[in-house]
Every structure is written in C-alpha cells, then in structure tokens.
Write a structure and sequence with these properties.
Strand order of the largest sheet: 3-2-5-6-7
CATH architecture: Sandwich
Structural class: alpha+beta
Largest sheet: 5 strands, antiparallel
Low-confidence stretches: 3-20
Number of strands: 9
CATH class: Mainly Beta
CATH topology: Immunoglobulin-like
Radius of gyration: 17 Å
Length: 131
C-alpha cells in the first residue's frame, strides 16, 4: 500500500513539474499555409494526423503538440510535407519546436518555400513550386 502511495505521489509531482515547465508555452500552435498545396507534418520522422490545408490555418492545442513531441525531450523536429496533386510530396520545411517555450527554429526550407516565424508556436509557410 505504501509503494502505491509513493508511486502516485511521485507521478503527481512529476506532472506538476511538467505543468510548471510548460507554463510559458503558448496555449496553441498556429500553422498558416499560404501555398496552393495541402500539407502534412512528420514529427520525429513519423506521419502525424496534422493536416495543413492550402491557403488555410491549422490550430493545435498545445497539450496535443506536447504529447506528440513527448518522446524527444524539450525540443521536437517537425518536417512539413507539401502535397501537390499528381506530384510527389515535397519536404518543404523542417523546424525545431521548443515544447516548453514555443520557440521555433527553421532548420531547412526547400527552394521556393519560406517559413516565417510569427512568434512562439506560430509559423506561416509561403511560396511553393505550384503557387
């Protein structure tokens, strides 16, 4: 019984520390897509359920972002993949997202694409070969 109580207390303490560490994080992640192509995101090399509509905005609750990135530590590498009809998918950009602060670093931009960092957890994808 004592072991279960200590486990529960340890888990509660861990969750409290995680919550405090993310206190400065944004409430949501905003991804604007100013291209003519729908996009998706790969997180840590795995296809995610994130759909980024052409000329649209995707809003993700920060808790979902943190969960998807939870296996990578405080930062998470995200590949943005653009899909044009009848064309091969193109890795249009790669960003690193700091889950605790929302800071975004652009690692890669495919020629013809640009990623604009609008603030913590907020990016816009511009351009594209098919725009």
């Amino acid at each position: 019984m004592i072991k279960k109580g200590l486990l529960a207390l340890s888990l509660a303490a861990s969750m409290a520390v995680s919550t405090l560490a993310m206190a400065d994080a944004p409430k949501a992640m905003f991804i604007q897509n100013d291209t003519n192509s729908m996009g998706t995101a790969e997180i840590l090399g795995y296809q995610s359920p994130i759909i980024i509509r052409a000329h649209g905005q995707t809003v993700l609750p920060w808790s979902a972002v943190a969960l998807m990135c939870s296996f990578s530590g405080p930062s998470c590498v995200i590949d943005v993949i653009s899909h044009a009809e009848a064309k091969r998918p193109v890795k249009s950009a790669q960003i690193t997202l700091d889950v605790e602060t929302g800071n975004v670093t652009v690692n890669y931009q495919h020629p013809g694409y640009t990623v604009e960092v609008n603030g913590p957890g907020n990016v816009t994808l511009h351009g594209g070969m098919f725009s």
